[in-house]
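In the previous chapter we treated chains in isolation. Here, by contrast, the input contains two separate entities that must be folded as one system, with a combined length of 556 residues.
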Amino acid sequence: MTLDGILAEAFAKAFPGIETGGVRALPATDPKFGDYQCNDALRLSKKAGMKPREAAEKVAAALDRAAFSKVEVAGPGFLNLTVNDAWLDGALARISASPSLGVKQTGAGRKVVIDYSSPNAAKQMHIGHIRSTVIGNAIDRIYRAIGYEVVADNHLGDWGTQFGILIKGYRDCLTQEERDRLTVATLEKCYVLSAAKAKEEDGVWKDACRAELVKLQQGDPENLALWRRFIDISIGEFERMYARLGIKFDTYRGESYYNAAMPGVVERLVSAGLAKESEGALVVDLSSENLGVAIVRKSDGGYNYTTSDLACVESRVAEYAPEKIIYVTDDRQKLHFAQFFAICAKTGVKTTLVHVPFGLMSYQGKAISTREGNLVRLDDLLSEARRRAFEIVKERGGDERLAEEIGYGAVKYADLSHDPATAIDFDWDKALALEGNSGPYLQYAYARVCSLMDKAGCDGSAPAPFAPRTVHERRLALALLEFPGAVARAAAAYKPYVLAEWLFQTSQAYSAFYQNTPVLKSEGTTRLSRLRLCGLFGDMLAKGLHMLGIETPRRI
RNA sequence: GGGUUUGUAGCUCAACUGGACAGAGCGACGGUUUCCUAAACCGUAGGUUCCGGGUUCGAUUCCCGGCAGACCCA
């Protein structure tokens, strides 16, 4: 039985008839307290009408001691638990025998759509795109790991006024050669030139841009073909980035995919009495929910994000019937999503909608933009990451491929290793850290395990019983048992950093163990059981890193 | 002006949603390679958890009022 189960029984016996609301054994905050602690007697003492300490004593008395070598009540009413060898050995054997290494397959037979990365077409990806891309992909991988069927959709910004500017610019700002060998970089330049001319006093250029846009919207074949070409070139370039990052989307459905459905969406909002005219626009009044009003059709008859997101959600529900749709975007869009979700609640959309916001990335203290001239291209960041990693890797005979695995791992880990709620200012040295709490630290720990296994001539699954007996072995063993919980918490909260933190702490426990405990030089069953512990750690580390999208080279 | 959000070591961040003496990494200082990969390990220094109240056995966490930054909406 699990420790939580044993505790639940003891609480039921000690406080019959009292709703406990789930009692848990948490890892002890300090090893001197034991292996686990339970704080729930404190929480429930009031309900039971007794002093906290007394309540804890009562639970301790009711506790089945078979799993423990020591149980004590401490402080105001903490229950400190030390598990015995038999329990620990058995728990390790069970988790190791599970194909998922104990990770609960709570998503089996269920489906989610995850919407992430979503760059604007005709622009190069820059460091500001890292967060949605990397965090979204980690959530994607974690959900797959807990058994969900995931549809990863890239909701490209592929429609809007910028295409009028682009088409005009393409025709009149580019050389024939540039038009023939069109790249995203060229498109970006073309946009900047054309947009600048659109600001001229006489307004001639601006009107021409608008005319091109109208033609595009009305389905003019030439403009439509140009637009299609811009999109294809953009996706080609994005996929080059995603390939570098090991990311694969199931679909690339941009805003344009939902164009045809938007009038219907608005009609239904009107006939349901949700949308009303206001100053020429159609709006949904959400002021009773303190969310202001959401425009669903502008006064010029155009649609906006809210409309296209509503069309998008309808389409996804109809096609996939997902349990949830998860949107990973920066937190400037919080209000937009709150409004959009509120409208979905009113129209009875049959899925759970989740917004996973993160703080915007700035660079040198300023918002990232072409105008500020502080735009660091993602391509350049990755190349710099590879270059820095190669400087170190080459001393040990590593190649470019290894430098990529390490450099890109460092970039990803830098963003995945902490709660993304706060805005961050991009810093080369922080993004590319190779030591301490970093991607390479974890990869290094993995390479050392692999090396150990190779030298031992076994893969760690040799049928030797687990028997962690030294302090360092025990600490590592206890940390390993927390793997499934870390994955579950990361998934439930949409926070990959919870998993990243487990990986780091567990790797620290491994490093300390490795430094102080001979493995290959130990003998007999001790050697075998230590190898098995190392093997389990290696398997979990690889699985966890995979969930974060970080490569696991066997040699560094 | 309204709203959201953040404030913890010099810097970057944790603290499992109210629990024990607030922990890691970087940086600083000192130590550990005849020994399984030193991208590692061990140790030292560093804190009024922005400020002031409140709630209770107990607050970095919850509530109220300020201050500061970031963003969103008029």
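The radius of gyration of chain A is 28 Å. Chain A is about 55% helix and 10% strand. Compare these points with the single-chain example from earlier in the chapter.
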